[in-house]
Design brief:
The protein has 261 residues and is mostly helical. 60% of the residues lie in helices and 0% in strands. The chain contains 17 helices and no strands. It starts with a helix and ends with a helix.
């Protein structure tokens, strides 16, 4: 059977397109550094994050997918191939999440910021050479990493200010092995160090990287079950409980480098 017979994109909520193979990813450092400059100038330009990720992905997606297959729950999730953007866009389902759960916290998070799973997916499609919608297991894994970003905000406790975003991407580096996360985190940490706030902003980013190394491996989780789990117990189970250096930075200084630029 061909990929066209296996997947009819017209029947899907997300625009997955047929593909039998993906092109090898070439590492493009100059492209990544140009995108980083644009991102530092405007942290809301989310498309630049995906530009950086595409430029530096190399074989990280393939290796991450292979790691999923080596874990029992990860292998089950790879078999199911649930499109998390579609699930997270289902407000009726999110509203069934119990009080105090990861899902309730996620719903409050996206409502407060007027975010949506499909909105993030649309940003990822702005990269000219993206293959994120391809009907391929590696592309599905890349979509999975994209779609859980805001859930990782909830689990780690980092918000969506400039420092919080840098901490989430620093956390994501050891979780995914994608150098793009490292470049973004390092670039923003340097800007915070230059801002000289008197608070541990740059150290918060480094601590987030260490938390990512020590935590359970998040890509393989059953996210549908996780959303129903109490947030406190989920954080404890995954090694993400406790205060952080980020918590010590006053809210009004978490965008400090933007004003100092």
């Amino acid at each position: 059977m061909t990929a066209e017979l296996l997947i009819d994109s017209a029947d899907l909520a997300s625009p997955v397109r047929a593909s039998t193979r993906l092109k090898p990813r070439k590492v493009q450092p100059l492209r990544a550094f140009r995108a980083l400059r644009r991102l530092i100038a405007n942290k809301e330009d989310t498309a630049q994050v995906f530009e950086i990720m595409n430029a530096l992905a190399g074989g990280s997606v393939r290796r991450g997918y292979q790691k999923m297959l080596e874990e029992s729950e990860g292998a089950r999730q790879a078999y199911l191939m649930t499109e998390l953007a579609d699930r997270l866009q289902d407000r009726a389902w999110l509203e069934t999440c119990p009080a105090g759960s990861v899902g309730e916290a996620y719903l409050a998070f996206i409502d407060e910021r007027n975010l949506s799973a499909y909105g993030l997916a649309d940003e990822s499609r702005k990269v000219a050479d993206t293959e994120i919608d391809a009907a391929h297991p590696h592309a599905w894994y890349a979509r999975r990493l994209r779609d859980v970003h805001d859930i990782w905000h909830i689990l780690t406790g980092y918000r969506t200010d400039a420092l919080g975003e840098a901490c989430v991407v620093a956390f994501s580096l050891p979780q995914t092995g994608s150098p793009g996360f490292g470049l973004i985190a390092a670039g923003v940490a340097v800007q915070f160090a230059r801002a000289r706030t008197g608070y541990p902003c740059a150290r918060s980013v480094f601590e987030a990287w260490r938390r990512g190394r020590k935590a359970g491996w998040l890509p393989a989780l059953d996210y549908e079950a996780l959303m129903m789990e109490p947030l406190t117990s989920a954080r404890s189970r995954l090694g993400l409980a406790g205060p952080t250096l980020y918590d010590r930075v006053p809210v009004e200084l978490r965008n400090a480098y933007l004003g100092a630029a």
